[in-house]
Fold this protein.
Amino acid sequence: MLFGRMFIPFMRGPFMWPYGGRWGWDFPFSGGLFGLGIFLGFFGVLHLVLAWGLFEREPWARFLGLALGFLALLRFPFGTALGIHTLCVMLPETSGSEYDRLAHNGGHMNSAAGSS
């Protein structure tokens, strides 16, 4: 009920419909779905920033990936599966040291790749 009050406007206060309140196409966009769209858009932008950071091997991208991986666990069923995979790949210490080597070495793992 509390979550619904954040996104569905008619649950915020006294019920207006069908007792004379307005009802039309502006109803869902007056605050409920618009707020949900802003919320989801924010996470979409965060995922794009994460994708860019991981592609460029930025040092901060691993931490952002872990944070978004933990938040993905809440989105059942696909988000949970992707969150578990993200955490299994990025959370171990060996993954952290490997990512640090990639981030600080310009993305090259060995000297053969660095010489080409």
